[in-house]
Amino acid sequence: MADLDDDCGREFFRVDDELRLSWIKIEPDSVRSITDRDMELHNLNADLHTLISTAFGSSAVVGEALGLLNRKIELLSGEENSSTLNLKAVPANVSGSGLAFASKEPLRHNDFVELTMLLPPVNATVRLRASVVTCSSYPGDDWTYWIRSKFEPKQEVITEQIVQHVNLKQIQSLASRQKRR
Q: Which residue has the higher pLDDT, 25 or 174?
């Protein structure tokens, strides 16, 4: 998919991936109120994601098991809303500053979206805002559009989770290449 990824101002390493994600178009000035409980859950999830990522670096089996347990707790506790449960596997190119993804619906330059993604292997659910950079046709048969977006500022905790995901994917890719030699 390298030909799909023209420079869109990304400042971080990027990886091709298939992510479970959904998006909704939002107004640029919309504000979501976050209750204290939601903020505490978000912060706990971010801290847990960091620890699971660290565990994954020591043992892939332990890291993945902890990620699956965390995901199971989220599902059983009802912390997931319907948009998170309806995440579909989508071809994507992800970095710490933006996301390009396949879509059946078009978006326009400067549209704002709220993205919800499940980041394997630690199975962290993240939700963040992004602005659309470009929308072009997708060369495959399963999708119609390739949307390139840039994450909005002031989402550092969430984008750090995405950077950790990208780093883990790169480590897995390098390990896979080493095994083939």
A: 25
For 34, list phi and psi in degrees, rounded to 5: -115, 120
The domains located in the chain, with CATH, are 14-27+36-180 (2.40.10.220)
Provide the token pair at 112. 């704002």
The amino acid that residue 107 corresponds to is L
Cβ(123)–Cβ(169) below 8 Å: no
Beta strands in the chain (DSSP E): 14-26, 88-95, 98-103, 112-119, 124-137, 145-151
pTM of the model: 0.69
Residues facing residue 17 across a β-bridge: 92
Percentage of residues in the chain having pLDDT higher than 70: 77
For 127-154, the pLDDT digits (tens) are 899 999 999 999 877 899 999 999 999 8
Cα(174)–Cα(81) distance, integer angstroms: 35
